[in-house]
Amino acid sequence: MTFRDKVVFVAGGTTGINFGIAESFAEAGARVAVLSRSQERVDAAVAELKRHGGDVIGFAADVRDYDALSSAMASTAAQLGAIDVLISGAAGNFVAPASELSANGFKAVIDIDLLGCFNVMRAAYDHLRKPGAAIINISAPQSWLPTPFQIHVGAAKAGIDQVTRTAAIEWGPQGIRVNAIAPGPIAGTEGMRRLAPTPAAEKAWTDSVPLRRWGSKAEIARAAQWLCSDDAAYVTGVVLPVDGGWSLGGSSAMTTAVTAR
Ligand code: NAP
Ligand code: COA
């Protein structure tokens, strides 16, 4: 797919799944902006993305800081042009039982994931190409599959799904499409290092996926490119699971339960 000279902004785009998405757009000829908190990560990501030959800029900012986001969006539009593709993927995750999670721990994840997602979309709005822009918010299957020790993440991602659908309705008439991707367990990511810190936990995760494997960053990037391409020009308001069927819920446990005699 080609995105030659399209302008792509990736919030949380310096590592992991979001960096994989940013890199796939850079490879496809796009002009890319990435944003995350750590200046060191921003510098490393910008250097890596520049190897693909296009214009790349980076911003060290927190998605909880609306003014900083607003200025990053304005600066992107001034340096690279109107934003064609906006990816909102900054997030925080840790495993915590609800009975032990502090109110501030719950709030931290809501603030980064959900409020951060709204902030990114809202700050970008004036700088999006209209018509033609495509937004992808990064959700997770925990948004509809209640997942123990993930009460904060499930609530935040469920909010993101509804923000996605609501914005799709409000911004559709301006020619802006708004979709989300809900990745399953993706190999080589910080998220899965936190959720599956031991070989036994890794195996349990694999067994809970109907396709019996974890996904790759490239598989998420390909789904993102499709959703932002003209091939998906009539697709908006969708939360697309790219998860090997994980969100169908309890595949191996269900099989054991139903077949137990
Ligand atoms: P990751 O590498 O830790 O990516 C998170 C990114 O967000 C980092 O670049 C981080 O950089 C940035 N970030 C975090 N807090 C931020 C803040 N307050 N403001 C600005 N940037 C911030 O994690 P990942 O596992 O690849 O996850 C990426 C996305 O996929 C997340 O939305 C996650 O919920 C979703 N997801 C992941 C999986 C999985 O298997 N890993 C599954 C389902 C969904 P800084 O630290 O520099 O800020
Ligand atoms: N278990 C329980 N509570 C935790 C926790 C854990 N593992 N980690 C943090 N918290 C709580 C803190 O104790 C604090 O609450 P308190 O004030 O009541 O003590 C609250 O969360 C905020 O912590 P803080 O460290 O100030 O937050 P932060 O904004 O600096 O960082 C996090 C946000 C906690 C989400 C951090 O893990 C992070 O930056 N993650 C980004 C990378 C990531 O998670 N990648 C995977 C994405 S899927």
Description:
- The protein has 261 residues and is α/β, with parallel strands linked by helices.
- It has a single domain (7-259), classed as Rossmann fold (3-Layer(aba) Sandwich), CATH 3.40.50.720.
- Helix content is 46%, strand content 14%.
- The protein is built from nine helices and seven strands; from the N terminus they run βαβαβαβαβαβαααβα.
- The chain has helices at 16-27, 39-50, 66-80, 103-125, 151-171, 190-195, 199-207, 217-228, 251-259; strands spanning 7-11, 31-36, 56-60, 85-88, 134-138, 177-183, 239-242.
- It has a seven-stranded parallel beta sheet, sandwiched between helices.
- β1 (7-11), α1 (16-27) and β2 form a beta-alpha-beta unit.
- α1 packs across α8.
- The longest helix is centred in the middle third of the chain and has 23 residues, at 103-125.
- It starts with 6 loop residues before the first strand and ends with a helix.
- The mean pLDDT is 96.
- It binds NADP nicotinamide-adenine-dinucleotide phosphate (NAP) and coenzyme A.
- Residues 12, 14-18, 36-38, 41, 62-64, 89-93, 112, 116, 138, 140, 183, 185-186, 189-192 line the site of NADP nicotinamide-adenine-dinucleotide phosphate.
- Coenzyme A (COA) is lined by residues 91-94, 96, 101-102, 104-105, 108-109, 190-191, 194.
Beta percentage is: 5-15%
| The CATH homology group name | NAD(P)-binding Rossmann-like Domain
The helix-strand sequence is EHEHEHEHEHEHHHEH
Number-wise, the strands total 7
Largest sheet: 7 strands, parallel
Q: In short, what is this structure?
A:
With 261 residues, the chain is α/β, with parallel strands linked by helices. The chain contains nine helices and seven strands; from the N terminus they run E-H-E-H-E-H-E-H-E-H-E-H-H-H-E-H. Residues 12, 14-18, 36-38, 41, 62-64, 89-93, 112, 116, 138, 140, 183, 185-186, 189-192 line the site of NADP nicotinamide-adenine-dinucleotide phosphate.
